[in-house]
Amino acid sequence: MPNRRTLAPLIVLNALLLAALAGVSWSPAAEAQSRVRGSYLMVAGSVQGGDPEVVWVLDQVNEELVAVVWNRERGELVGLGYRDLGVDAVTLRRGRD
Length: 97
What we know:
about 30% strand, 4-stranded antiparallel β-sheet, elongated
């Protein structure tokens, strides 16, 4: 059986670990954790007066739309715009009431 000198630090360590676990368990969820996994649809298209190589990415579950183009000089996707379709739908419904 361990003596008091070795038992006290273990009790303190266990209490600290229990407090840390309680803090993590009761903390609010982060934004990314509350987001539902999406279902995506991508469509190639264009915008008036702009680059003809636009890709529209629709997240059907979270009702979001993003337009992106490929920047050849930098070798990366560049965002053109973002729409929250859920907010747009609520705005449209309010306008008709």
